[in-house]
Amino acid sequence: MLSRLSGRAVHRLPVLQVAISARFNATFATLPKSCPSCHQPLPSSVPACNKCGTIKAMPRDVNCYTILGLPYEPQKFSLDELDLRNRFRRAQAACHPDTWTSRGKDNTEIAQELSSRVNNAYQTLRNPLTRLQYLLELNGVPMEETDKIDDMEFLSDVLMARGTIEEAESIEEVDAVVEETDDKMKAVLKLTEELVAKQDWVGAKKAGIQMTYIDGVNKAAEEWKRNR
Question: What's the pLDDT tens digit per position in 128-142?
Answer without folding.
Answer: 999 999 999 999 999
